[in-house]
Amino acid sequence: MNETITQVNDALWGYVLTGALVLCGIWFTFKTKGVQFRMIGEMFRLLADSATSGTSGLDDSNKRHKHISSFQAFAVSVATRVGTGNLAGVATAIAIGGPGAVFWMWVIALLGSATAFVESTLAQLFKQRHKDSFIGGPAYYISKELHHKGMALLYAILITLTFGLSYNSIQSNTICGAMQEAFGWSPLVVGVILSAMALIIVFGGIHRIANVSAVLVPLMAIGYFILVVVIILMNIEHIPHVMKVIVTNAFGFEQGVGGTLGATILIGVKRGLFSNEAGEGSAPNVAATATVSHPVKQGLIQALGVFTDTLLVCSCTAFVILISGLYENPELNGIALTQAALDSEIGNAGPIFIAVAILLFAFSSIIGNYYYGEANIRFITSNKTALTLYRLLSGGVVVMFGAMASLDLVWSVGDLFMALLTACNLVAIITLGKYVFKLLDDYLDQKRRGIKEPTFHRGKLPEIERDIECWEIEKD
Known about the structure:
It is built from 19 helices and two strands. By secondary structure, the chain is mostly helical. Strands 1-2 form a two-stranded antiparallel sheet. Strand 1 and strand 2 form a beta hairpin. The chain starts with a helix and ends in a 28-residue tail after the last helix.
């Protein structure tokens, strides 16, 4: 079964989808004049304002209502990004594609941040009201503006299968593997505990998910970053060699592990996409829940999430693995390689630290992934029984399946759904990107006029005003 899935994956990915991702990133970077680079200061300002006040630029009526802040939406999206892709995925990329795969992960992140900006801004533009928060994502902007119900339904089904089910089995599998390696705990026991914890949180809705993620994400990212920085500083003399190995292997000048240049590029792009999710259309589902005064604000903040994930956390893992030299051991792969690399640098505490880190990283991903499915289940049907069934499957059954399944199987299934999902979303954002370019121009025009917190109302896009449900009130 796994061999068949692998063959289908190779056919779907090949160079067509890989090339499409890269070309989309280049196109959006060109059309936005490098928004991910020239507005990085604004990204940090918006994130900091949201983290401290949560209401920057909102009117009094919005402040009085319960809402998801930009920082909380950012935390949930980073929670899904910063998971097994950063610890196990990076290790797998290096083991299969060689050190050069890291370079192509960087490339897809730098270009993908522009793609993330576009898709998250679209999600804000076409979001809808839902009880005490907003709801939206690719299924909504495909349905609203492309007027293609069938394609929107297909996307909603694919993302529910990909994140709520397939990706959650990967997260669970990695947690159980790390716990077994470090403590000898049975995957069955760990799976039962994970399922119980996940069910408690997912039945609490988006506000509980956002609150948990806002605590777990900074805690895990800062702790892991500090440890790795210390290791890098202790081995600072090896960094020039590590960079040389990454670059030379990336272009086929020094093919050690990985075999061919094609395999290096392909695995780097695939693992990079799994890690930062730019182009899949996943982060827009939570980006749409944020209450902001202009759609571009959340687009900028979500673009920053791609940098946080790949250029920071993934690079940390890659440097530790390459410094250790253990990536040349064919018997090590996935989370076991990361644990072995840390073990070689800080002793027996390494596997234990990674086990705890992966528990926080991957568990936060489980609850974030669940919400992506929930947002799309609500798009498919308003039947409460269907939502309850999905919660039991995503938080319980699938987590247990991942705990007991093989590593190769869960990753192969994840790659398959990721390819289908990405292809569907890319069609939509390429078609609708023109509205994002207009929104960015409007935002920058207001900034040039000295307006610190730009605002938006749907009358500014009269050609699609009828398709925009929110943003109806023009702010002073």
